[in-house]
Specification:
Strands 3-4-5-6-7 form a five-stranded antiparallel beta sheet, with no helix packed on it. 13% of the residues lie in helices and 30% in strands. By secondary structure, the protein is an alpha+beta fold.
């Protein structure tokens, strides 16, 4: 039993030293563990170290290749026009708003939205946005603002007078 405990402690210590050495190659005087044979000058490659009875598993190296076969990376610079519309009308929470926008895919957009405001009015916004004029909005309101009556002023309770 004692030999097994010593073997486990030795394994744990050796694993910790290897992990520290490969994670911090500057402490090895410029030498780092490399893929290949022995020590060499270069960049250390740190692999995750698992403390377990299973053998360590090294991940395959990441190699960048150009597109091969029938796959080509998508050109993210292509023109992508879009259009969307949504609306919400919830009587329980009095939420009422909608929006619509279209874009030509070249940075130019045009749209509108409406929002029910807490004061009872509805705000309508029509806008255009482009790289020359920026964001230009036309804002209008429907209805009249209604505000609740102000609450009664606060009066502090009188300070009780104690006999004595």
């Amino acid at each position: 039993k004692k030999t097994q405990d010593n073997n486990m402690k030795s394994f744990a210590c050796l694993t910790a030293v290897i992990a520290a050495a490969s994670a911090a190659p500057q402490f090895l005087g410029g030498h780092g563990l490399r893929h290949g044979v022995g020590l060499g000058h270069g960049v250390a490659v740190a692999h995750p170290v698992a403390i377990a009875h299973a053998p360590l598993v090294h991940h395959a190296p990441v190699v960048a290749h150009h597109a091969v076969g029938g796959y080509a990376q998508p050109d993210l610079a292509e023109v992508s026009p879009y259009s969307y519309t949504y609306a919400v009308a919830d009587d329980y929470s009095n939420s009422n708003f909608n929006a619509a926008e279209t874009g030509d895919g070249n940075g130019n957009a045009e749209g509108s939205y409406s929002v029910a405001l807490p004061d009872g009015r509805t705000q309508h916004v029509n806008y255009k946005a482009d790289g020359y004029a920026g964001y230009v909005a036309d804002v209008t309101y429907d209805g009249a603002a209604v505000y609740p009556d102000a609450p009664a002023p606060y009066h502090a309770a009188p300070v009780p007078a104690y006999a004595g």
